[in-house]
Specification:
The complex is a heterodimer of chains A (about 475) and B (about 45). Chain A contains 17 helices and 18 strands. Chain A has about 475 residues and is an alpha/beta fold. Chain A folds into 3 domains: about 90 residues, no CATH class; about 250 residues, Aldolase class I (TIM Barrel); about 60 residues, no CATH class. In chain A, the strands form 4 sheets. Chain A has an 11-stranded mixed sheet. Chain B is largely without helices or strands and about 45 residues long. Classes of the chains: A alpha/beta (about 475), B little secondary structure (about 45). Chains A and B meet through strand 5, helix 3, helix 4, strand 9 and strand 10 of A and strand 1 and helix 1 of B.
Amino acid sequence: MNGQLGSRFEEGLVHLYKNNGYNIVLDINSGSVHVVDDLVYDIVEALDQGQEKETVIERLSSMYGRQEVQDGYAECESLIADGQLFSKDIYEDAIGVYTKKEPVVKALCLHVAHACNLSCRYCFAEEGEYHGQRAVMSAEVGRRALDFLVENSGSRRNLEVDFFGGEPLMDWDVVKEVVAYGRSLEREKEKRFRFTLTTNGVLLDEEKMDLADREMSNVVLSLDGRPKVHDKMRPFPNGAGSYGLVLPKFLEFAKRRGDKDHYVRGTFTRHNLDFSKDVLHMADLGFKHISMEPVVAPETEDHALRLEDLPAVCEQYDILAREMIRREREGRGFQFFHFMIDLSGGPCVYKRLSGCGSGTEYLAVTPWGDLYPCHQFVGEEKFRMGTVFDGIKRPDVRELFLACNVYTKPACRKCFARFYCSGGCAANSYNFHKDMEQVYEIGCVLERKRVECAIMIKAALACD
Amino acid sequence: MKHIKTLNTVKLQNTVKKGGCGECQTSCQSACKTSCTVGNQTCEHK
């Protein structure tokens, strides 16, 4: 089905852009990506502006020659007929299928320690304490959390549990016990647990590396890049930098880990708006799986990104994308989390509509066993949904999150990237607007840029 | 095609009927935690 209105097309069905010498047309609703020459770029742009076929051909013939324009137009028509260009959004009705499904929980973020041995300056968890007291999770709460997950997971087989904090290695015995308990449940309950660990590395040692490598399906290692950048934002409580301590451990772990899932994950702020250098620093150290998140902070913080920083940040993504292409061609490529995109498969439309699942299939558990919609809502009393002991007592909170999607957010309806971020992070919307149907504008600008770069990289490598 | 190179052959429309099993990874369990990055997740049945 295409979005034709008489002899013209609806606006906003395609996204066109030029980057690094490539002309790219993204058909938003089919996800089809076309690399086109200047002629077809001009044709599609004119059609997107509502011009009619005859007008387009007539106007462009003087520039490209009538036969060439007619040939180019014929290629467009074949894609239109195949649902790969100017395709219509047919998914809004499908959202109902998703929201009416039986509620299941399939992933938990276990806050095993509301305490941390670093004092990172941008920490949304307030040095691990999340607006509350320092605390560690007991094994009893941890085990009960897994029982709660199994009981509420319906027919889902794959269940995910992230050991998070604060710093989870500060409660390592409980991590080990919860992992062992999870494995003991798998056969009996016909479930498979995928454990993940997010750590600052301070307490990482041989024994922890062994268990993490063996039991964790993904391990996230927090590293911000160059030593000065890392040490400025990730100091110990006494102000000393942590780079020198954690880097050798991360290198050792990455070496052991090989191709199994792991990321070194950093945060960039307005103190390092040249963050491509930090990503490349980590790549030069030999890390092959790298993530670098923009800081999310209130504008009162000196490290917060501001609207005026966005051109510089977007330029950094361009620099990084071009360098990644160069290294890939030289046989020394690496993965950058935000530039990963699967054009030949990727998530189904339901996944793209449902987003991260916060408040519905993904919940956070505090050291005391309280349930929140996600790690970023922990400590916000009005979002406390229940406990792992008593279950969910606030179905209204779940309903609030379930009802929120790209079609309920006015800004997302018009955005070409809506099927890549699924409406963005609910916590960011809430924190900046106290309204989950608003969007966090800085995050949106950067998400759109990352999608453009990710597609451009695919285009460049496909055109080699 | 002479003027157009299409990078993918799978259309999102085709996943309406087959998708929705829910077995895939929850995106925040990967490496973001402060944004929402769904487009780079992998389908469990790919």
